[in-house]
Design a protein that fits this description.
about 600 residues; alpha/beta; seven-stranded mixed β-sheet; single chain
């Protein structure tokens, strides 16, 4: 460095050192994750055989209505019986959550981040154990548990840790010309005690996801877990409570309740609940709204979907087909955003049907924690009670001209006769007049429909009242984007399926009978806050005056009216000249 004077080097180094020191001093301190241990239940281990196999698995106990019977849907093996939360316990838990929230609302964003970091590190370090617990309680495969339970939760944790404070920081707003001497901003304040009533298809993620957002927004949370996955709930609850406890905060911030419809009604009808998030069916969603209306409690409803995939003939089939296979088979299609209608353009329809038939015939169902390695592609279903309804929907379609090429019925597994399986099904030549196109199946049923052009595709898609997620496949990006934006749905993906949820910066929710409101993204985080409008004087010596002409008692009403009229003209006229003239009139009227 010929141009660098050696005598100047110490000065340069001193300046650099000073800059680094200043940065370190001004940088907000980071509170690190605190490790903790939590042992997974023994029943989650592969090859666990201690529980009896039930002949007719069910969640009720005939002589004990206060108990929930828990079993592995993949085998029918009993996991135990857990007490349903009583109505008195529901009230007590809400009260404890309310008391704990008072102190939590005063915590800094960094303190809240530390709790989420602690939880995040535990999830990453215990992926296998978490997946095994989810598999045992819901019958899914380890791959499906990793993608649907762990990956999604890690994505939500990471996004909230990195972006939550920016989303919830006070937001300055333009006060406008007339209020230029004011500062205007939106302040996001915690609602208090929020509730989440969540579905059973992803027992870990569906319960932990609302907790993440609620805690970071400064709330306490009551989670009503589904009675169909009650066995795993204590493990998830202990996980979050331990994270809070080791970080020095009250575990009472998080309360889990589980039980039947009466418990859900007690939560949604409580005047002590400040916001409700519900994930379930349109029918139950209406009941939640009705209960919440008694106290005017705001609600966010995600009520499932009949998601479509529009596949144009120019699509990259080597990419499209595997993606759509996963959209149907993953978690036995017990996905809110599973693809339940595949519309294929006529030029590629026959080829597509044959390829999907070949693939669907090879799908193997079974119990991932009990069967031999590499023998299971698709897991069990949580609700066997839905099997007659699914078979009826398929029969209706066949009666109206559809062809059931593969499956179409409940499956009796040779090794797990008490397991709850539905055969992977391929139903083709489906038309919009068939009941299956308007009813959510929530099962491994691939429905294929034919379309001719964009208008035909849109008409067939919109024949369903649902509008949650959607996909469009085409090599023509302009066309794909055009069609995707015309779909009546809350979410859409071009040349993919469901990836919008991995982008946790995006809101999640639907239109039509798929519900309203959003969780995830800035919109979901802010929905758990009171959006308070706030103004204050920009300068302490400039305050809002009340001119004598309009001060009470008003001495001359007509003159006062003309004065206020000119205020409007002065502040909001389109031209400066009109404003100047109004200003002169104001001066004259004030004299």
């Amino acid at each position: 460095m010929d141009g660098l004077n050696c005598e100047a080097l110490p000065v340069v180094l001193a300046v650099m050192a000073g800059g680094i020191a200043l940065y370190l001093m001004m940088r907000k301190p980071t509170l690190k994750a605190i490790p903790f241990e939590l042992k997974a239940p023994a029943e989650s281990q592969p090859g666990w055989y201690k529980g009896e196999i039930l002949d007719a698995p069910g969640i009720t106990v005939s002589d004990r209505p206060d108990l929930i019977q828990c079993f592995d849907p993949a085998t029918g093996r009993l996991l135990g019986r857990v007490p349903a939360t009583t109505l008195a316990e529901v009230d007590a838990k809400i009260t404890r959550a309310r008391h704990a929230q008072t102190a939590w609302a005063q915590t800094t964003f960094e303190q809240r981040r530390q709790v989420l970091r602690t939880l995040h590190e535990f999830v990453l370090a215990n992926q296998r154990e978490i997946c095994q617990v989810a598999c045992r309680d819901s019958g899914k495969t380890m791959i499906d548990a990793t993608l649907g339970e762990v990956l999604t939760t890690a994505a939500k944790l990471q996004w909230t840790i990195k972006n939550g404070e920016r989303v919830l920081c006070d937001e300055n707003r333009d006060p406008g010309f007339m209020m230029m001497y004011k500062r205007a901003r939106v302040v996001y304040q915690p609602r208090g005690v929020v509730a989440a009533l969540v579905s059973w298809n992803y027992p870990f993620h569906n319960t932990i996801g609302p907790v993440i957002s609620a805690l970071f927004a400064g709330n306490s949370v009551v989670v009503k877990a589904s009675e169909h996955v009650a066995w795993s709930m204590p493990y998830w609850e202990q996980m979050v409570r331990r994270a809070l406890d080791v970080c020095g905060h009250s575990p009472e911030l998080v309360q889990f309740v589980t039980g039947f419809a009466d418990v859900g009604s007690a939560v949604t009808g409580s005047p002590e609940i400040d916001h409700i998030t519900f994930i379930g069916s349109p029918e139950v969603g209406k009941l939640v709204m009705r209960a919440a209306s008694a106290n005017l409690t705001p609600v966010t409803l995600e009520l499932g979907g009949k998601d479509c995939a529009v596949v144009f003939a120019d699509s990259d089939m080597a990419q499209c087909v595997p993606v759509l296979m996963r959209s149907v088979i993953q978690n036995a299609s017990q996905n809110c955003i599973g693809i339940e209608r595949i519309l294929v353009q006529d030029a590629k329809y026959e080829w597509f049907v044959k390829e999907m038939e070949r693939r669907m015939r090879m799908v193997r169902v079974g119990a991932i924690l009990d069967d031999e390695p590499n023998q299971v592609d698709c897991g069990a279903m949580v609700l066997s009670a839905c099997f007659p309804r699914l078979e009826a929907l398929i029969a209706d379609a066949v009666a109206k001209g559809a062809r059931c090429v593969v499956g179409g019925h409940a499956y009796a597994h040779p090794c797990h006769p008490s397991g709850q399986y539905f055969a992977p099904t391929l139903l083709v030549d489906v038309t919009p007049d068939m009941d299956i196109t308007r009813n959510e199946t929530f099962g491994p049923i691939m429905v294929i429909m034919k379309f001719t052009d964009e208008q035909d595709a849109l008409a067939k898609v919109h024949a369903s009242p649902y509008g949650l997620g959607s996909s469009v496949f085409s090599s023509d990006r302009v066309r794909a984007r055009r069609v995707a934006l015309k779909l009546r749905a809350g979410m859409t993906n071009v040349n993919d399926f469901g990836v919008n949820y991995i982008c946790q910066s995006l809101p999640f929710g639907g239109v039509g009978i798929s519900g309203f409101g959003r969780f995830a993204g800035p919109e979901g985080l802010r929905a758990l806050c009171v959006e308070k409008a706030f103004t204050e004087d920009r300068f302490p010596f400039v305050k809002t005056p009340i001119p004598p002409i309009v001060d009470y008692p008003i001495m001359d009403s007509e003159k006062g009216y003309k004065f206020t009229q000119q205020i409007v003209a002065f502040a909001y006229s389109e031209s400066w000249w009109q404003s100047i003239k109004a200003g002169l009139r104001l001066g004259k009227l004030s004299m």
